[in-house]
Amino acid sequence: MNFNLSSSKITGEIIKKYGFKMTKSLGQNFLINENILDKIIESADISSDDVVLEIGTGIGTLTQRLCENAKKVIAVEIDRNLIPILNETLSNYDNITIINKDILKTDINEELKNLSINQKIKVVANLPYYITTPIIMKVLEDKVNVDCMVLMLQKEVAERMNASPSTKDYGSLSIAVQYYCDTAIVCKVPKSSFIPEPNVDSLVLKLVVNEKRKVDISNEDLFFKIVRGSFSKRRKTILNSLSNYEDLGDKDKIQKLLEISGIDSKRRGETLSIYEFANLAKNYEKL
User: Fold this and answer.
1) Distance CA 26, CA 177 (A)
2) How far apart are CA 111 and CA 105, in angstroms?
3) What is the pLDDT of residue 113?
4) Cα(161)–Cα(169) distance, integer angstroms
């Protein structure tokens, strides 16, 4: 049976049929905007050669579109109460594997290996907003073989990930994501696009994962420590922010670091590019 899950009426009927109760703690908001679905699929440029990982399937609205366009879809859904619904709404598709697990506790690389997936994948998802950043960083830090990610995110979080230096949204999250990816806003998503309507606005963000990191550094832990320290006191100069941050050193040491890196000590961390942060990390190891 075919289900038009982008219809609020049909979505409501399915929810009622199964007596499904949405769990606020899981951030469940089901997408019902067909135009947004089209934009997500178009932005991900999904073809019959692609393997797609979806995180958080809901009742299968986006999943259906993915199955219609991709070679294989792997859907990870934490809520076991949704599995019977998915077994019905996705019954017409033979290219779907549903995994009922918590994505943050799942070895994605192992799951792909078990399914004999040995090609780059695409991640397309309407992510639970309360764990957006941990999920994205897990995919990136676990070195999953990903080509790109097209994700529905809370507007503020997407803007932070996409932000440029010297803007109010630019921070350590911007650097963390852009270290791995090129970012681009795909479209805005009105609250009326969901059942139930969320309390926040949304954006679709595309992350193209680079073959090589944006900057070449030998000590990632040190790099990100300097980044976090630089944003730890946004209204302070970078000299004051980094001085005595964790074990980076006192003001004299940081002053010397800034001098050899060609960075004015009166600048604020939010004005530095990722390349300047990389230069700081490289020079710190020479002190």
Assistant:
1) 23
2) 12
3) 97
4) 8
